[in-house]
Amino acid sequence: MRQRFEIPMPVRYLVNGVLIVLLFLLGQFMISAGILSSYFQKILLQVGVYIIAAVSLNMATGYLGQLPLGHAGFMAVGGYTAGIFLKNFPIKGLPAFILAIILAGIVAGIFGILIGIPALRLKGDYLAIITLGFGEIIRVILLNIDTVLGFKFTGGAAGLMGIPKYTSFPAVYICVVITCLFIHTMMKSRHGRAILAIRENEIAAESCGVNTTYYKTMAFTASAFFAGVAGALFASYLGLLVPGDFGFMKSIEILVMVVLGGMGSMLGSVLAAAVLTIVPFALQSISQTVADYRMVIYSVLLIVVMIFKPSGLLGTYDFSLTRIIEGLINRAGIHDGVARKGEQSK
Amino acid sequence: MSKLIPMPTNNLLTERDVDKPPILEARHLGIDFGGLTAVDDFNIAIGRTEIAGLIGPNGAGKTTVFNLLTKVYHPTRGTILLDAKDTAGMNTIQINHAGIARTFQNIRLFKNLTVLENVLIGLHNSMSCSLSESILRLPRYWKQEKEAKERALELLSIFQMQDLAKYEAGALPYGAQRRLEIVRALGTNPKLLLLDEPAAGMNPSETAGLMENIRKIRDSFHIAIMLIEHDMNLVMGICEGIAVLNYGKIIAKGTPEEIQANPAVIEAYLGKKKEG
Predict the structure, then answer these.
(1) B104 vs A: CB within 8 A
(2) Span A10-345 CATH architecture
(3) Is the pTM above the cut of 0.90?
(4) What ipTM was assigned to the predicted interfaces of this complex?
(5) What residues contact A318, with CB distance under 8 A and at least 6 apart?
């Protein structure tokens, strides 16, 4: 039998690295050459933010197999952390922005641990209800505390205004790449396999000696961390945060992205996040009434997908450029072999 | 077949293993579900390299015993000594770390993962690279992944399954799924392997192969194996000590020959002979 051709590891990383850089340069070129108007640039930034949110929710939903409904809550925690930090930190500019993003992730991650430890002891519906409650509590708290001990804090219902706007295409792009790389490499290690094992069969995972509580909390915390990062980018993109932005519907919107794209598929989350972020803008340009009914369209879309392809559009399929190249080379190799055989028989 | 030697606590042990403490000893083990006593006064000792059998009619409590030994259920009464250490207060995960691995009567594989990944999850605790090492792809990650993969293929080769490594576990035929569960359990490096109906759904030739392999596993891994099975050819063929369970109580213990001749066992399986 013919040895299957495989691309060696360093080349794999090189190919993917080149692809990432090329995509970045393409985006940067389109912005600087003025092909993308500032309106489209804004949409692009939002797409990036929602990709991070969806990919991180996919970690908890697709890989860990839980159903959290409070993802917007973690985004809110991250967003407000970054917003308050950026407003009050003496140094301005890029270092402050990087610090704010990391801090937002960490604070959201801490909330993830706090919610995760009790919530992950429960299964299915109960976890959904607890996280739903968490998301609402965060929103209501943000709505009602504008000052803490006389210190101007969140701005309450009026919103947190005047956050410096640092979010740019390179910042969002780098955050998206880091998020995807982090989650991808994590899932392709013993830690990731343990998380998948919990999704597949918790009792079997336990009897294989996988510390299920630890890995559930780890996945949930990582999910919350990146939601916080998305929140930070969102805060510095808008320059204004209103508690209403992070309501229950926002959590559902992100969940719809993950479910439509395919639970457990990173590419699915990325594509669905991009499409579902662009669609409302596209609808708005047609007519405002159609845009107002987008949640109805989402629900119908979701029902249709659940009926015809319950695992989501891409299922658990994940894109790998190197695998495609390998496939092409191997197919070419087989054709060679057949041709040579034909010559011999003559 | 070696002789069975009586133990101080009404337990029996194979002659070969008698100079070492038994790998597992259950004393007066029992569990109640509400008012129902599912298992009561269960005593057993398993030697270091013994193949032990647990048989009994349907609903006798055999799987419940396995669930007690692996702490899926916590016993209401009694003690379990694993390697002469009390396991009170341990959970399923700690029990696995301490050396018991098991398979399930209704197969519990990670169905959407590949055969290789299933075994790699079994090897989870034999790898030690941290999360940051894995994410940054440091040398230790590559080394351990490579070693684990080789080890997994080696374990799969016990059942000649190394060529199936890339297939989804749920797509395997039933018999192969049962064998994969055994391989995954072996990956956790156990001292005692509990097999819950390993031959269920297998045809006679597959069962014969399985018997051969169970013996081979015991000999090459030097571990003890305890199995629940309804296939009497298998049980009588490979088990050295057998315990018979009926209505949650042990009604007989002994070698296969003793069990086959025991009137209480025959009664439990076939019913009482009519008088006159």
Answers:
(1) yes
(2) Orthogonal Bundle (1.10)
(3) no
(4) 0.89
(5) A265, A266, A267
